[in-house]
Amino acid sequence: MEESILKTLNYQLSIPNPYKFLVRYLNAAHADKKIVLLSSFVLEESLLSYDLITTYKPSELSAAAVFIARKVSGRNPWSPTLVKYTEYREENIKPLASQFLAERGRIKEMKLMASKKKYSRSNMSKVASIDLPTEL
Model-level pTM? Predict the structure, then answer.
């Protein structure tokens, strides 16, 4: 039985991870380069928080990253298109986005600098230097 399922799927298996959702949500958000890079940075930083990754689903983390990036970029943080493709409403995502911004203080204290260095480069539009709010 298992073999027939694997053959049907052409052995294309993967686990749901936040980046799979992020790509889909960014397409739905009609994201420009700044929003793509900023939401990638936000998502990567959120993965440093044990509380966030054990409490929320990968799709929720990705949606919150897009929400934060759009808000910081001055765009409407959520849209009907995002509701359709994510199946989350703004009121579902906003508390998680707020929790992430609150967790950022603890993440900064860990002094794990790989993401910050990566997103501080000019080819990443230096999005790590953008000040994120502490609350929404």
Answer: 0.86
